[in-house]
Design goal:
CATH class of the largest domain: Alpha Beta
Oligomer: single chain
Number of domains: 2
Radius of gyration: 20 Å
Largest sheet: 5 strands, parallel
CATH superfamily of the largest domain: P-loop containing nucleotide triphosphate hydrolases
Structural class: alpha/beta
CATH topology of the largest domain: Rossmann fold
Distance between the termini: 25 Å
Order of helices and strands: HHEHEEHEEEHHEEEHEHHEHHEHHEH
Strand order of the largest sheet: 3-6-9-1-10
Length: 310
């Protein structure tokens, strides 16, 4: 199932990104599942390096959008410009028309500009001036954001958070890795020299293999039990949506593919439950977007309470 290709891609990213390997695996799970990934953490821990190393490892079109408070939807999607010679309007595509799009610091821009990405994330297409334009596969949005408590941030609305298949917390590197970062500065040296190890068409072929990863009916019931538990929890006022249930299913299949299996195990579901679902729920003590850790704790409790199939 293309395990050697996936291993090559993972190793290429890890040659530059020296943080926790789980963050790399979650990023690749998002890619295989045709999902979008939200990387959230404090500034300076390598969020952008992780996203850029993925983009440089695939031979495809890459664009980066530095999101700021004054950015307009047209700056992301594109705009029609009048051509004086032909006397017609010509559409100039925006940076969203790429295979891997890095939306850097997505929560520093206004909700109006954030919402411009919703259709692209959901349907891999963009509607502008009564025209619908498809986006070329593979299409993946990798967004980074600082925690909501930081100065100059807008919280992402729930309907947009629900469109990210996983949320990744990079965390601080261990001491040994940080020592290498200080001495070699891979983001300034190795990242610029990083060569692609996978073609865009190979990514599409791997994505198309995902439905072939077997999901036992007992695991489908297990996923439904977990989702239902979030909706009936006394600690949550918003449970996981059907889109979230589908995301957990696809991410579990991608996790199996990542290690070369053609079937999903209960451990695949368990390991991804928090990463896929924590940003989709609201606890009853929720205040805007600053309650991620509380939501994660509630989901871990649910995970311990719901019995997994043997």
């Amino acid at each position: 199932m293309g395990t050697h290709l996936i291993d090559r891609l993972r190793d290429n990213i890890r040659s530059v990104f020296l943080g926790h390997s789980k963050a790399v695996d979650l990023l690749l799970i998002g890619l295989l599942a045709r999902g979008h990934v939200l990387i959230e953490d404090v500034p300076g821990v390598g969020k952008t390096v992780l996203a850029r190393s993925l983009a440089r490892s695939i031979d495809c079109r890459f664009s980066r959008i530095q999101l700021t408070p004054d950015l307009l939807p047209a700056d992301v999607l594109g705009v029609s410009v009048y051509n004086n010679q032909s006397h017609t309007f010509e559409f100039k595509p925006g940076p969203v028309f790429a295979n891997v799009v890095l939306a850097d610091e997505i929560n520093r821009t206004t909700p109006r500009t954030q919402s411009a990405l919703l259709e692209a994330m959901s349907e891999e297409q963009v509607s502008i001036e009564n025209k619908t334009m498809p986006l070329e596969r593979p299409f993946m949005l990798v967004a980074t954001q600082n925690p909501f408590e930081f100065e100059g941030t807008y919280h992402l609305p729930e309907n947009q958070l629900d469109r990210f298949i996983v949320r990744i917390s990079v965390g601080y590197p261990d001491r040994q890795a940080e020592q290498v970062i200080l001495t070699t500065r891979p983001s300034q040296t190795a990242l610029e020299k990083l060569q692609p190890v996978m073609k865009a068409q190979e990514v599409v072929e791997l994505q198309d293999q995902l439905p072939a990863v077997r999901l036992d009916p007992a695991l489908v019931e297990y996923i439904l039990d977990l989702i239902e538990a979030t909706r009936s929890s006394a600690d949550l006022r918003l449970g996981v949506s059907p889109r979230g249930a589908l995301a957990l299913t696809q991410a579990s299949q991608a996790s199996a593919m990542l290690v070369g299996r053609d079937f999903v195990t209960p451990d695949d579901v368990k390991e991804l439950f928090v990463a896929v679902c924590a940003h989709r729920v609201l606890s009853k003590s929720y205040l805007h977007n600053g309650d991620a850790h509380n939501s994660e704790a509630i989901l871990r409790t649910i995970l311990n309470q719901v019995r997994a199939p043997q």
